[in-house]
Amino acid sequence: MKMRGAVLFEAGLPQPYAISKPLVIEDLDIDGPGEGELLVEMAYAGLCRSDLSTIAGARPRPMPVVPGHEASGIVREVGPGVKDLKPSDHVVMVFVMSCGGCSDCVGGRPNLCGSSSGAKAKGTLISGHRRLKLNGQEINHAAGISCFAEYAVVSRGSVVKIDKDVPLEDASLFGCAVITGVGAVVNTGKVYPGADMAVVGLGGVGLNAVLGGVVCGANRIIAVDINDSKLALARELGATHTFNSTDPNALEEIRDLTDGGLEFVFEVAGAIPAWEMAYALTRRGGTLISAGLAPAKAEFSFSPYQLVSDERAIKGSYMGSSVPERDVPRFINLYKRGLLPVQKIRTATIGLEDINVGFDRLSDGEEVRQAIAFGG
Predict the structure, then answer these.
(1) Which of 129, 137, 9 is closest to 66 using CA atoms?
(2) How much is the pTM?
(3) Is residue 22 part of a domain?
(4) pLDDT, tens digit (0-9, with 9 covering 90-100), for 257-283
(5) Would strands 369-373 and 196-200 be described as parallel, antiparallel, or unpaired?
(6) Mean pLDDT, rounded, for 191-202
(7) Does one domain contain both 103 and 75?
(8) Which of 95, 201, 344, 372 has most Cβ atoms within 10 angstroms of its Cβ?
(9) Which domain holds residue 84?
(10) Among the listed residues 49, 54, 56, the one whose alpha carbon sits nearest the alpha carbon of residue 12
(11) CB neighbours of 373 closer than 8 A, spacing ≥ 6?
(12) Total domains in the fold of the chain
């Protein structure tokens, strides 16, 4: 079958992307689904900073590749062995294509599936196959999804079925921004009612971490970013205090406000200055939780003596320590009740042909979460 998709042939091209055009819209061939796979027609696909990292070359991936890992869509065909989904079902994509059989999956940690990480590194589905071609040449998959295209063949473990009454434009956020941001607070941090927390970095994931703090009943939710418009949005979503990190007095003011720091600090920018700010804001006995993927070669230094003497903790949170089949439905139920107004984070809708401009806007901080509308 023929379809249109955005192909990244070379990473690291200079901005503005509207001129260098790292993503090229091509007419691709897509094979039908194999054993344990689905053909999904894309409805909406979100532009995420993880994709931006790949485009910029900070996160190496096999090339050429169709990027994209956050999306909603409609099942159009099921492959052999798929018994619990059928054509016309609505689904959300999740960026770990859990195999269901490895020690992590069986142990209740499908977000850490080793089979998935190995397939990602090779640019394949879990089956080891590629279902995309351009003029006979195989094209790599991104995170087993490659949703910057009109259709995707994905492994069964890459999707979660959702109710058809959930708007697909909002549903697309749940497979990455929501499950990562809210999950970091709820699952990794286990923030309790009355706790004080901070979020450093207010992209789509960071703003969802703010929402996670509201859902958990946190007392003070301090939001930190370099962009005043994002700080304003954080206040609208429930942040009790906001600080612009470019203010040289911001760190001291937050520490004064909180009597030396906070019990939970979430770093979601994936940048070393954000790590430094987050660590400095973590009080004695507190926990720094990072859900922001920094460049692969970036390093962060801390004092082991201080870590022990202050009894601090540093934890990573990948995909919000989530179990997608459990967490996507429960987060969507909170959304239905008005407790997770994720639609406020969706700041623009664009066409596939505008994807390079969209990543310029994301890089420049002009937009939080843009969604490509396919009309599925």
Answers:
(1) 9
(2) 0.95
(3) yes
(4) 999 999 999 999 999 999 999 999 999
(5) unpaired
(6) 98
(7) yes
(8) 201
(9) 2-175+345-373
(10) 56
(11) 43, 44, 169, 349, 350, 351
(12) 2
